[in-house]
Design a protein that fits this description.
single chain, alpha/beta, seven-stranded parallel sheet, six-stranded parallel sheet
Length: 364
């Protein structure tokens, strides 16, 4: 059986998106008989059960003591602080793990703190490398580069950052979405633009509690018949306060660690959230959305989405108030044609089959 090694991390700071999309790709590869082993740093040990629950193996790369970690990484410089060690040491540990795992056909790396130097250090005969990136801020030594985002001037973003032989897969056509999104898309009957149910979801962690701000915005509309689904992750540190706020809304339901997000998106008429992989999940289901960026790396894709008429982008979450969100929701409720246009533009961008397209390119 063929084997793939996946180097990825997740945390409250990093979010869950990198791990989620790698799991989605690994699951697609598994359908073709290819097994995967995930290499996570020790601080992500709590997520091992999630990976193993998807029937993949996990190995933890040991973290150095915290004091040594801060000294080695130069915390605060770019994304280097996402590693508790140097990229050289991470590459050494990755190579050691791969030696113990045995022969692998592919190494998948999805990590903002790793670049061409790490990839070159991990190269060996017969091993091909797939790099997943969103930033285009560093070079890669890879056989396939995947950037699933919609970004202005995408075709030139990685110029001089990869070799001419590198296969470049760009855009939401290759978005790594779980199969249930394509399934729910097939059940979709189109959007009328009328807004009677709102979905609030800011991902797995939401450290700045944008969720509460959005719920407060909806509450201020004083629409007693409005149904609200609020999705938060198990790692959300504000769960109790969010549930307390939602208890004051007559038709609000909190879904913690929801495993039916695709269904909730199909049922909703409007979504409030941020960027990342969820942008393409909403597009797949033609869900109109009011969005903010919660990290600098989301700005480019959200700007492009707004340019395409596929989302209402309000800017940085730090500068967007509950009143601003309420005004945006109110304007779309009063203009069903505009909400329907957002839905149609979004629906045209992603069909939910990206995982299969990427897996097929890897098998060629």
């Amino acid at each position: 059986m063929q084997q793939t090694v996946v180097r990825v991390d997740a945390s409250v700071q990093m979010g869950m998106g990198h791990l989620t999309r790698c799991l989605t790709l690994a699951n697609a590869l598994a359908e073709g008989g290819i097994r995967s082993c995930f290499l996570l740093r020790g601080h992500a040990a709590g997520l091992a059960s999630l990976v193993e629950g998807n029937r993949h193996a996990v190995r933890l790369l040991p973290d150095p003591p915290a004091a040594i970690s801060a000294e080695m990484t130069g915390a605060g410089s770019g994304y280097a602080h996402w590693l508790p060690t140097t990229w050289q040491r991470d590459a050494e540990q990755t190579c050691q793990a791969m030696d113990e795992i045995g022969s692998a056909d592919w190494l998948i790396v999805d990590h903002y703190a790793l670049d061409a130097r790490w990839e070159n250090a991990c190269r060996r005969d017969g091993l091909r490398i797939l790099a997943i990136d969103d930033l285009a801020d560093r070079s890669h030594d890879c056989d396939i580069l995947l950037d699933q985002n919609l970004v202005l001037q995408m075709d030139t973003r990685y110029r001089d950052r990869v070799s001419e032989a590198c296969v470049q897969l760009f855009g939401p056509r290759y978005a790594l979405l779980r199969p249930e999104f394509a399934e729910q898309r097939r059940l979709s009957t189109g959007r009328s633009g009328e807004i009677g149910r709102i979905l609030v979801c800011y991902g797995g962690s939401d450290p700045t509690n944008e969720t509460a701000k959005a719920v407060q915005a909806i509450a201020s509309l004083a629409s007693p018949r409005m149904a609200v689904d609020v999705v938060i992750g198990h790692s959300n540190p504000h769960a109790e306060s969010i549930m307390r706020i939602c208890s004051a809304l007559p038709h609000a339901e909190v879904h913690r660690g929801a495993n039916n997000l695709a269904e909730l998106m199909r049922r909703a008429d409007l979504s409030i959230g941020a960027g990342g992989v969820m942008s393409w999940e909403r597009c797949c289901l033609g869900l109109p959305s009011v969005v903010v960026d919660i990290a600098a790396n989301q700005v480019g894709a959200l700007t492009a989405l707004a340019e395409a008429g596929a989302a209402l982008y309000l800017g940085s979450a730090a500068s967007v108030t509950a009143e601003t969100l309420a005004d945006a929701i109110r304007s779309l409720r009063a203009d069903s044609a505009r909400a329907r246009a957002l839905a149609e533009a979004a629906f045209a961008l992603a069909d939910g089959e990206g995982r299969n397209r990427v897996a097929a390119r890897m098998s060629e």
